[in-house]
Specification:
The longest helix has 17 residues. With 255 residues, the protein is of the alpha/beta class. 44% of the residues are buried. The protein has eight helices and nine strands. Helix 4 packs parallel to helix 5 and helix 7 crosses helix 8. It is globular and about 50 Å long. The strands form two sheets. Strands 3-4-5-6-7-8-9 form a seven-stranded parallel β-sheet. Strands 1-2 form a two-stranded parallel sheet.
């Protein structure tokens, strides 16, 4: 694996390792492009403080450090500067103004919560609530329509344990919309390494039938997890069995 856009740092409060430690791990692993997409700060309307992402005040420091490291390691490794962002419709325009002001270069969509983080359960929690599944698919499809995301991270994060027919219907709607929008979907190495509910073969079978394309994202939360070839191979095997082509890199969607 030579290219990755999905890297976190300790700034998100649930990962370990500095930007430079992640870069050095990537160099040791033979990665040519190590993009950073730490969890984006979100605009809030009250005093709610997230425990899984940097604050808006921390964003300039994140960007500045990566710019400095890009100069330091020029000619050795490329370092695109991005964020993994939620799509929260009521604050999204203000969010875009914030990240454009800091000259963030790309976004990947990581929809962990619906509506807004404060009032939503975590998407990866087991649920048989069909309305919650539909809400998830609606929000991801609306996010694709914005045209600002380079790809969708772990689209199969939602852990639906209800009616299989409903799961198939709704996730096919997501995959069909992705294919229509030429939106690449991520096979997530972090989930594969820890045997989480994603990558979910159920979803990737649907994605293959709908003509979707995939990319592999490391989703590293610690430098030691930058190079995990067994998990990467598991992702590639799931894609191959589902008939989903895996792209080795995708062009950045500039925001």
């Amino acid at each position: 694996m030579k290219w990755n856009l999905h890297t976190h740092t300790s700034r998100c409060h649930h990962a370990s390792g500095t930007e430079e430690e992640m870069i050095l791990a990537a160099i040791r692993a033979g990665i040519d492009v190590m993009g950073f997409a730490d969890h984006a700060p979100m605009i809030v309307r009250d005093d709610f403080v997230s425990g899984i992402r940097m604050t808006p005040e921390e964003l300039p420091g994140y960007v500045d450090v990566l710019r400095e490291l890009r100069v330091k390691y020029a000619g050795v490794i490329e370092i695109p500067i991005g964020l993994e962002a939620e799509y929260f419709p009521d604050v999204f325009e203000d969010f875009l103004k914030m990240v454009r002001r800091e000259e963030v270069e790309f976004l990947i969509l990581g929809q962990h919560y619906l509506g807004n983080e404060k009032d939503s359960p975590y998407v990866g929690t087991q649920t048989d609530n069909e309305d919650f599944l539909r809400f998830y698919v609606d929000q991801v499809c609306e996010a694709m329509d914005t045209g600002v995301f380079t790809y969708v991270a772990h689209p199969d994060l939602i852990q639906f344990i209800g009616d299989e027919n409903v799961y198939e219907q709704e996730m096919r709607r997501l995959a069909r919309h992705a294919a229509k929008k030429n939106m690449v979907l991520e096979l997530n190495v972090n989930g594969a390494r820890d045997d989480r509910n994603y990558p979910d073969p159920r979803f990737w079978k649907i994605a293959g039938e709908e003509g979707c394309q995939a990319v592999i994202g490391i989703d590293a939360h610690h430098p030691k997890f930058v190079d995990t070839p067994a998990a990467e191979e598991k992702c590639r095997r799931i894609a191959a069995e589902a008939g989903v082509p895996v792209l080795e890199r995708v062009p950045l969607v500039r925001i």
